[in-house]
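Subject: complex prediction, re-run

Hi both,

The earlier run crashed halfway through, so I resubmitted it with identical inputs.
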Amino acid sequence: MTHSIPEMRHYTFNFGPQHPAAHGVLRLILEVDGETIISADPHVGLLHRATEKLAESKPYNHSIGYMDRLDYVSMMCNEHAYVLAIEKLLGVEPPVRAQYIRVMFDEITRILNHLLWLAGHCIDIGAMTMFVYAFREREELLDCYEAVSGTRMHATYYRPGGVYRDLPEQMPQYKTSVWHNASEVEKQNKNRQGSLLDFIWDFSARFPKRVDEYETLLTDNRIWKQRTVGIGVISPDTAIAMGFTGPMLRGSGVAWDLRKKQPYEVYSKLDFAIPVGTEGDCYDRYLVRVEEMRQSNHIIRQCVEWLKKNPGPVIINDHKIAPPKRVDMKEKMESMIHHFKLMTEGYCLPVGEAYAAIEHPKGEFGIYLVSDGANKPYRLKIRAAGFPHLAGLETLVKGHMIADVVAVLSSLDIVFGEIDR
Amino acid sequence: MESLLLVAGILLKIIGIVLVLLGAVAYLVLLERKVIGFMQSRVGPNRVGPFGLFQPIADIIKLLTKEVIIPSASNRYLFLVAPIISLGTSLAAWAVIPFDQAVVLANINAGVLFVLTLSSLSVYGVLIAGWASNSTYALLGSLRAAAQSISYEIAMGFALIGVMMAAGSLNFQTIVMAQSGGVWHWYWLPLFPLFIVFWIAGVAETNRAPFDVVEGESEIVAGFHVEYSGSAFALFFLAEYANMILISTLITLLFLGGWLSPFQGIPYLDAFFQHVPGFIWLLMKLSFFLFCYLWFRATFPRYRYDQIMYLGWKVLLPITIAWIVVLALAIQCHVAPWFIG
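This time it finished cleanly. Structure:
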């Protein structure tokens, strides 16, 4: 009898779902040879909430809140695609002021998303201080969310035909408490004396300096470059073939941005640039996103300037679609009936189908809506930007090391709310 | 009777050193959380006691009262021995560390060698822990630790050779006294590249950021001690911080004149600070390096495992070897003021 050499096998292990860098509930089966990745098999579905199916059982206007919960770090952008799809089928167009408000909040959301992405990316690569810095800025932007919608996350602010209400004239103020005395509170309230627009203006004036600060920590940092340059490279052709969109595609040098290619709302009137990378590696995607934050800030400033000068309605006056004023409801019979019908039955969409896509912070986020003429969608399909990105993970990480998987994974900017839906 | 007293005396000294060290470790942890907190525009712990000063005590109580979970697939005996090796070696190294002139537990002639040996041995704690846990992440962590320690010990050893050549001794007392004469006489100046290499290697040797791939929170969760809990984890934790203090002290002793006053040789100032005890200077110097440890952690991203190897073998090692040649020439030519003797 001869002894054969035992078969050599690669190591296979679970990366997540209980893993600090798994970005939510990703279960990644990694096959490694030493530390080199042989294959990476992402398993999805652990956060599946059947959003698409749920939407089929509810009147159109009841599902806006579900959209917030898809990509739960860029809430209003998800709503945007959904209300755009409804508006397309209804054939209505929101007032210009509402369009500017939407664009402004889309860009605020983009900064929110990119800041969280930067925070996560940095802490995954080990630069933990950036995490806290990014959250410091997010705090103020979430205050803007809170000022218009009452919540910091799931806003449900965009409505078919406009937005829920006009921007507040007065920013909410901090009050003294056991932890913060009068002088501290005064400091906190310093930039909250005016309207929301003043608050955003103040923020947007300070923000570019903050981005410079991040860049001093990262952009020319040798370790940061060693960890990101040449990692997770994807060529423009492969990126297009795999359905990459957003910064993942622009990082490879393809200047594809729906805000420019098929402008929606008022993007065609605004001045902004599309940053593109050259190499298609993690570092380029980082640079693209950082520049996008600057561009978003630029857009926000243009919107604030316009909004300050041009008051007007923020939602259409058709009470079959948009609810009547609260005051009217109390006094006018017709308004009350409108409100009641709208809240219980909603409205019917004409038979047909519509696809509305926006340039979401993560890429192309689209809503495909099929209506059979009822007050509920016959079918709702969400095109999540992150899904193709995650599907491309194996292509990106093959041959790299375990530490690079973490870097690449976080450079994808995936959020499981939208991937699992 | 006399020998009994001697043993009792030594035991007392050991207990004294260990207690002070453990106290220092506990408050170093608090300092770390505070310092990094301020660097990150947070406040850090401030709930337990005034300014959070009792936080370490609360942490210790928590860690000691928690259950030590032993994974059923692990090797029970090795699993428990590993943290003891880790802490044991990092404490034993303190036996030869002088705190002031002639204030040392064991003034042995091979002091530097003794410390180097123990720091090499301490990797066994990490290796065994990773192996005995029978967990993928722990195994990966301990493999990284083994590779990293071996690589950086070589660079560290060569840096030490430079110091030995300059001082002509392996005894810490002699090494420090050879540097007397003021700031410009300390070895950081003639041995500057070695000083930097030793510093970097020291950070890598203690597995601290940016070389913390052994624990690599975001990659291999907690690395070698992922399966440890309660007091077994506390031992690893203590060992890591005790090693940080040890490395800081070593850098101070070898390159920054240990307990020597920085004002030596400066008229008036020298006399003015004459009565400051040596260990105060030592403490101040080593605190600087401890602070840098925390500063690095708050600032730098983490290296990748193979990049650490690259840095160790292809950058640090050649630098040390090259500088040893330069140093040998300098000693041969009796370059003043360091190598006149």
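Residues 96 and 106 of chain B are 5 Å apart (CA to CA).

- K.
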